[in-house]
Please model this.
Amino acid sequence: MDDLTLAIRPPAEARYAAELARLAADDAAPKPAGWHLSPRAVRRFLLGDPKVGVTRKFYGDDPLVDRAIVSLMSQQGLMLVGEPGTAKSLLSELLAAAISGTSGLVVQGSAGTTEDHIRYGWNYALLLAEGPSERALVPSPVLNAMRSGRIVRFEEITRCPPEVQDALISVLSEKSLALPELGPDAVASAAPGFNVIATANLRDRGVHEMSSALKRRFNFETVHPINDPEFERELVLKQLAERLGTAGVSVTGERDVAEVLVRTFQDLRTGRTAEGTSLNRPDAVMSTAEAVNVLHAAALEAVYLDNGKLSAAHVARQLQGVVLKDSPEDGKRLRAYVDHIVKERAGRSGAWKDFYQAARALKLG
Ligand SMILES: Nc1ncnc2c1ncn2[C@@H]1O[C@H](COP(=O)(O)OP(=O)(O)OP(=O)(O)O)[C@@H](O)[C@H]1O
Ligand SMILES: [Mg+2]
Model:
């Protein structure tokens, strides 16, 4: 086996192995059958518990986390929908890691997803040599999860053709999967602990493409962007520290810069500044995930190409890669934001001034 902790991005159960072990050791609350941790411990894993050194991982909507945990104990699957970059995948990964001990049972939805990815396929060499047998059967992550009583994640489910999605209906309602090739009565039954967390992006093909039969088998939760700037700033700083920590480097000056970054993202995302001025919102997704990426890239520039002091000028230079993605109009919208809003703030602090000067020099189309 590869050492997962050395991967660029180890899975949640490896990243947070020490926290999960502490929570398990301290977990006397009742557990549903098949769960590695109690629902209370799962909640502490996601929302943090400083008493046992567990960090907060999901920000912004604590009741949503409770509802998600309850869904996963029930007969229903859990469907996380929302704008891109609102941590739907992160939430599903954290929940699966805490509940099942692994977040690795995943079906990645795409136009090329087939029923085999949801049910099972065959090792054709063995199938031809021996005929259909348990040995020749190649289980999907869904079948593996059913047999082992774990959570399977279905990423971007609405990107699959609806008839393929519908293979999940019987899995969710009967909690079993017929294996007719292995015999008329052959069936795989889900062990306790099995459930499905699906994610769907509202900017992609959209949730309306799902059959209503399948929709009824899921509880839907909408994950919204973080609207509290304090929370968002805390999150981006924490994620920056994590990412730089993995690389063994650090920067200075990041707090003031994060303030400028988060304010800019919130203004452009909502189309309204903190002072109450309306502005033209870019089509580009100004998500928290993008904000983290921008701050990380800015910090890399500061560390490797500059003197290690992060400046809002680094952020300004990274911003165009996020904003100039969807439509040429977005460049003009960003320009207007810089020329009016940022200019006015430039007198307020050194960070806003650095941001303004660097942003004015950008070629925004
Ligand atoms: N509320 C939040 N709590 C914690 N992290 C967040 C939050 N919102 C955004 N993030 C950041 O966004 C990153 C990636 O989000 P993720 O990939 O899970 O989003 P997504 O909703 O699945 O996006 P997509 O629709 O593009 O697949 C997280 O790793 C984290 O850095
Ligand atoms: Mg995702």
Notes: The longest strand covers residues 195-201. The beta strands are 77-82, 106-108, 120-122, 137-139, 151-155, 176-178, 187-189, 195-201, 218-223.
